[in-house]
Amino acid sequence: MKTEKTYIHRRVCLCRQCGGTGTVTVYAEKDVRREYPQNKVCPQCQGSGRVWLSGTVIKQIEPYAEPEP
Fold first, then answer.
1. pTM, whole model, 2 decimals?
2. Dihedral angle sign, alpha carbons of residues 56, 57, 60, 61
3. pLDDT (tens digit, 9 = 90+) per residue, 8-50?
4. Beta strands 23-26 and 3-14: pairing type?
């Protein structure tokens, strides 16, 4: 007999792209020395600093049978 269960786990996490600040620092393409930073809204979390993280866990349960010698 084999049993299989699926769990869907959803939670709120900090955005990894902006580190939870909601903004990312970008530089102009010609700004080689990075003198003029510009803060823009993070495209991944849209400024909230948080994102939904979803994951699916599948567990299989099987009976244990000892190997024959």
1. 0.61
2. negative
3. 888 999 999 999 999 999 998 888 888 899 999 999 999 999 9
4. unpaired
3-state secondary structure the chain: CCEEEEEEEEEEEECCCCCCCCEEEECCCCCCCCCCCEEEECCCCCCCCEEEEEEEEEEEECCCCCCCC
Q: Within 13 A of 34's CA, how many CA atoms are on the CB side?
A: 3
Decide if 16 contacts 49 (C-beta within 8 A).
no
For tokens 């349960």, name the residue.
61
Q: Which two tokens stand for residue 3?
A: 């049993």
Q: For 3-61, give the CATH class.
A: mainly beta
